[in-house]
Every structure is written in structure tokens, then in C-alpha cells.
Amino acid sequence: MGLLDGKVALITGGARGMGEAHVRLFLEEGAQVVFGDVLDDEGKALAEATGALFVHQDVTGPEDWQRAVGTTVETYGKLDILVNNAGILKFRRIADMTLDEYSRVLDVNLKGTWLGVKSVIEPMKAAGRGSIVNISSVEGFIGAEGMSAYAASKFGVRGVTKAAARELARFKIRVNSVHPGAINTSMVMDPEIAAEVDGEAFLKSMVIKRFAKPVEVSNVVAFLASDRASYCTGSEFTVDGGMLTGAGY
Ligand SMILES: NC(=O)c1ccc[n+]([C@@H]2O[C@H](COP(=O)([O-])OP(=O)(O)OC[C@H]3O[C@@H](n4cnc5c(N)ncnc54)[C@H](O)[C@@H]3O)[C@@H](O)[C@H]2O)c1
């Protein structure tokens, strides 16, 4: 028996990286999976390889949300789970960052998450329950050089999560945030980060001294999405190999 048997899930930014790992694990655990992304070729290829359903979706657009949620409900009859995973990172110090660059990060990471929560309320109410998992970051707790926009967006995701948990508990909708640390995806291979960050010193500073595989985050996301997490809402779940322990969290 799978952890997510009988559930219908929508996962954003699912074409690669952690989103792809969530798609694959959710299918293994018995869910029907719809995933969105702006990367059409990667999305179609993953859909073909796995049997999940791909929809083109830019999380900053309300119409794209309507289409993604509509497709999910029309195809599978309901929507039980939303994973707000899509995100971007722009490494740039405040002095060098343009307002457009800053706004873009906030739009995708924070506005996209808020729109997601807003878009699934009615279908989850109709289903009689729901679970929303918002992907924040360790940058939702701490700031780092070059990360002002990213940290602002990920602190914001934590805030939206807590307010939504309070608003939606009456409809049996749980809302939690997941805070990955250093996960091995294209996001952390960014050449601008590689040029600025001392990789060896970073590894030495780690408690578990390695980057995580994406599925190590998916396991926590799947738990929160499932009925096993029935008393968890408004909470923060770090998957960071102990990174935040030194920061007092
Ligand atoms: N990799 C890490 O170490 C790390 C750490 C903490 C948090 N995160 C967060 O985890 C999530 C997944 O990141 P990842 O590491 O897999 O990176 P990734 O770049 O591999 O994946 C992000 C996905 O989001 C999609 N995306 C970007 N903009 C979009 C938009 N406007 N609409 C829809 N989809 C869009 C991308 O096309 C991509 O498929 C992100 O929210 C990221 O901020 C990553």
C-alpha cells in the first residue's frame, strides 16, 4: 500500500530537480500526479517516462493556475495535494541587483506560492480536506550575501504558510513549509554562485558533509502530503543536514 494511495496531487516546477523527484516519488506512493512547469520539453519527456500529466504553467500567472487546477480536477475528479515547489534563485548583491531582478524572484517564489494557495482552496474544500506543502529554504530562516531577494521570498513563503494554516484549518486543509539546505540540483550549480562561494569551506562547515539527493527532500514532502501528517499544520520542516543548528534553529 502506498502512502498516497487515492490522492490527487498538483506539483509546480516539476520538470526537473526536486520537483521531478517529487513527481516520481508521489507516483511510486500511489498518487495521481499532475505537474506544471515552464520547461515544456523536459515536462513532456518526464510525463512520457512516468505517466504523470504535464501542463504548461508559469506560477506567476493566475490564468495558468486556473488551467492547471482545472485540468487536474477535470482529469482526476478532485485535488487533494498541492506542492508549491517552483522557484528561482538570483545570486546578486543588493548594490548590483536591479529592481527587475529583485521583483522577478519575489514574483516566482512568493507571489507564485500565494497564488497556488489561493487557487486550490475551492477544490480542496470540495474534496473535504487537503494538504499544501510550500517549498521554502534554509534561506527562509537566515540571510546570506547575494541572497537578499531569494531570502526575502523564502521568509515570505514561511509567513504565507502560517497565515494560510490558520485560515484554512476550518476546511481541514493543512499547510506546512519545507526548508531544504544544500540539495544537488541545477539551482546550486549556478556559475555565479560557484564563482563567489568557497565550495570547500562550505562543505567543511556542514554537519552532514554532503549535498542531499532530491529524493531526500521528497520523502519529507510526501509525508506532509499524506494523512500520516494529520496533526501537522503551520509548521516548518528543515531538510538541511543540520545546517541551521549552528544558527540557533
Ligand atoms: N537546490 C537547493 O539546494 C535548494 C535549497 C533550498 C530550497 N530550494 C527550493 O527548492 C525548489 C526546487 O528547486 P530545485 O533545486 O529543484 O531547482 P531547479 O532549478 O532544478 O528546479 C526549479 C523548477 O522550477 C521551474 N520554474 C522556474 N520558474 C518557474 C515559473 N515561473 N513557473 C513554473 N515553474 C518554474 C524550473 O523550470 C524548474 O523546473 C525551489 O523552490 C528552490 O528555491 C532549493
UniProtKB/TrEMBL annotation:
The keyword tRNA processing does not apply. It comes from Streptosporangium canum. Coiled coil: none annotated. The lineage of its organism: Bacteria, Bacillati, Actinomycetota, Actinomycetes, Streptosporangiales. This is 3alpha(Or 20beta)-hydroxysteroid dehydrogenase. Belongs to the short-chain dehydrogenases/reductases (SDR) family. Signal peptide: none annotated. It comes from the Bacteria. One of its GO terms (molecular function) is oxidoreductase activity. Pfam families: adh_short_C2 (PF13561).
